[in-house]
């Protein structure tokens, strides 16, 4: 179900949890009530985001290196029980897209898209069968899962199943913004291993790749720092001020060719 936000509402740093109301069936009345689904009934839905990952469609956070974390609703991965948003860093062949779900209890990573060069193939999408936990206010261990990987080999593109294991460490720390002092944040360190042994188009392929993600999350803002290494794609996105960090976009983020 997709819920349309008022795209021109002002964003304020004092907002800890953003709420949106809308109706299913491809329509919205602007969030003033439940909305009609075209069948005469009224469906009400109230969504609350995690305080450390408020998401508003068609907005972005601007970073010192010139990149922006552009937010868009992801219809392909969302359904009646979950709302998944894409956050895009970079553009074109160098873009990274994180597919994120934000609920009051946890922030989860449903998948990533990009161009990840590993073992003579290029993985352009990983969709995790069980989402990876970015933040849940714990340092629990998590069971391995699998992911559907979209793989380019030569001129062919096929889907294969890869094994996924990961660890996540959360700590309370501070983030220094120039001229604005220290900002209390949660730091989430995610180490993800992708493993595959098999045959692709009659060729033996072995993949054993580590992906590293370090996010610093500020309450009411979201990702103020993103350091990541993703099989050839690297990011070091840091905000340098609490003023003018948000930007309203007028179109959905451009996705890399997949």
Please tell me about this protein's structure.
- The protein has strands at 19-21, 46-48, 59-62, 68-73, 85-89, 96-102, 107-118, 121-135, 145-153, 156-177, 181-200, 203-218, 222-230, 233-238, 246-248.
- It has no helices and 15 strands.
- Helices cover 0% and strands 54% of the residues.
- The model is unreliable at 1-40 and 249-258 (pLDDT under 50).
- It has 258 residues and is mostly beta strands.
- The radius of gyration is 19 Å and the shape is globular.
- The protein has two domains: 1-48, no CATH class; 49-244, no CATH class.
- A hairpin with a 2-residue loop joins β11 and β12 (203-218).
- Strands 14-13-12-11-10-9-8-7-6-5-4-3-15 form a 13-stranded antiparallel sheet, with no helix packed on it. The protein has a two-stranded antiparallel sheet with strand order 1-2.
């Amino acid at each position: 179900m997709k819920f349309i936000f008022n795209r021109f509402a002002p964003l304020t740093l004092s907002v800890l949890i953003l709420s949106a109301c809308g109706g299913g069936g491809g329509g919205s009345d602007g969030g003033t009530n439940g909305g009609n689904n075209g069948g005469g009934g009224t469906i009400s839905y109230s969504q609350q985001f995690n305080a450390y990952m408020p998401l508003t469609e068609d907005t972005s956070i601007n970073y010192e290196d010139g990149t922006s974390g552009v937010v868009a609703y992801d219809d392909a991965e969302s359904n009646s029980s979950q709302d998944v948003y894409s956050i895009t860093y970079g553009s074109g062949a160098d873009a990274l897209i994180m597919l994120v779900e934000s609920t009051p209890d946890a922030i989860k990573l449903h998948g990533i898209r990009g161009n990840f060069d590993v073992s003579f193939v290029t993985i352009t999408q990983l969709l995790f069968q069980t989402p990876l936990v970015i933040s849940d206010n714990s340092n629990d261990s998590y069971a391995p899962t699998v992911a559907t990987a979209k793989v380019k080999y030569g001129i062919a593109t096929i889907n294969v199943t890869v094994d996924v294991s990961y660890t996540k460490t959360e700590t309370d720390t501070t983030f220094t913004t120039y001229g604005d002092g220290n900002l209390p944040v949660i730091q989430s360190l995610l180490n993800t291993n992708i493993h595959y042994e098999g045959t692709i188009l009659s060729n033996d392929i072995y993949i054993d790749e580590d992906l590293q993600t370090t996010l610093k999350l500020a309450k009411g803002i979201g990702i103020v720092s993103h350091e990541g290494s993703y099989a050839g794609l690297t990011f070091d996105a840091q905000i340098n001020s609490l003023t003018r960090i948000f930007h309203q976009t007028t179109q959905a983020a451009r996705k890399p060719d997949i």
